[in-house]
UniProtKB/TrEMBL annotation:
PANTHER family referenced in this protein's UniProt entry, alphabetically: ATP SYNTHASE DELTA CHAIN
Keyword Ion transport part of the UniProt annotation: yes
Organism name: Cellvibrio mixtus
Protein name (record): ATP synthase subunit delta
Membrane topology: Peripheral membrane protein
Family assignment from sequence similarity: Belongs to the ATPase delta chain family.
Record-linked Pfam families: OSCP
Encoding gene (name): atpH
UniProt-listed HAMAP family: ATP_synth_delta_bact
Gene3D superfamilies: N-terminal domain of the delta subunit of the F1F0-ATP synthase (1.10.520.20)
Length: 178
């Protein structure tokens, strides 16, 4: 997967820089979301795998499937990916673009998992505290995991804050073994 991300990075960077230059960051993000979703469809994967189609034909088919969701420049981007045999990288391009967009906008998505449904005011306080700590606008998504005894587990990107009772017990058991 690291190799595919490496291959996708220049395309994501080019799309991001262009989107910033023309002040259409959200429009490009939405277009890449649609394109990535199309690229992940089994029928599209099969159609693009047909070796008898030229790059231009593959791009045209892909753009047709996307419908009017892509403007002319975004369609040109699809044609460039097709001519370089990189249409399959669209999901990776979208992910990298999303990370660059979040960095630009200073936003971050946080997943909070608890043993029970958290009250809205508690989620808002948590969002404010994380926003101050991370110096970003935080968007909190909550979920419930009944297997947690209590506490919460917070996921954001590569960072995990395990404040669950199970996590604390595991740390205690590890400390007792050493």
């Amino acid at each position: 997967m690291a190799e595919l991300t490496t291959l996708a990075r220049p395309y994501a960077k080019a799309a991001f820089e262009y989107a910033i230059a023309v002040n259409k960051l959200q429009s490009w993000f939405e277009a890449l979301e649609v394109s990535a979703a199309v690229a992940e469809q089994d029928q599209v994967k099969k159609a693009l795998a047909v070796s008898g189609l030229s790059a231009a034909q593959k791009a045209s088919v892909f753009v047709q499937v996307c419908g009017d969701q892509l403007d002319e420049n975004q369609q040109n981007f699809i044609h460039t990916l097709a001519s370089n045999k990189r249409l399959a990288l669209l999901p990776f391009v979208k992910e990298l673009f999303a990370k660059m967009k979040a960095q630009q906008e200073k936003t971050i998505d946080v997943e909070v998992t608890a043993a029970f449904e958290l009250p809205v005011d508690l989620i808002n306080k948590l969002a404010q505290a994380l926003s101050a700590k991370l110096d970003r606008k935080v968007s909190v998504q909550g979920s419930v995991d009944k297997s947690l005894l209590g506490g919460v587990v917070i996921h954001t990107g590569d960072m995990v804050i395990d404040g669950s009772v199970r996590g604390r017990l595991a740390k205690l058991a590890e400390a007792m073994k050493s």
